[in-house]
Amino acid sequence: MVRENEIRDREVAVAPPVASDAGLVFIGRIRTPWTSRLTCPRQGRADGPLCRIELFEPWDAALAGIERFERLEVLYWLHQSRRDLVLQSPASDGQTHGTFALRSPVRPNPIGTSIVTLAAREGAVLLVRGLDCLDETPLLDLKPDRTLFTPIAPAQPGDFEVGG
What we know:
The chain is mostly beta strands. It has a domain at about 30-70 and about 80-135: YaeB-like (Elongation Factor Tu (Ef-tu), domain 3, Beta Barrel), CATH 2.40.30.70. The protein contains no helices and nine strands. It has strands at about 10-15, 30, 50-55, 70-75, 85-90, 95-100, 110-120, 125-130, 135-145. The radius of gyration is 18 Å and the shape is globular.
């Protein structure tokens, strides 16, 4: 089992640059049954526990019409994650990988995402299943699941050419 803030063999930590404000605003908080990273699931499950997404004012008004969607994409700030590893060695395979080749919560900007199933809305609170974050996790954003939408226009030849 991994201990919090442990560095495994072949992992590399760096001194991160001084943070500059990107202007992020926490719009709410997420309530889950997990209070420790050691017990929190690695991936959310559609049959997981009912969790709460609580929106702060004035952002609660932005929930208007959300009930039309069965699935939502939730973006959140992994506030207890390390931010300094560039090479990581997941316990599951013992190999070393670059941070950007993993879905690890340890990242320079620890933004987590989950696709959740909306069970109910109670005012400024959404009841959802499928989260995989700690209790009191700060909420960054909510969006309808993009797989529920059709592309605006089909791709045309040359749309994705690089160079010139």
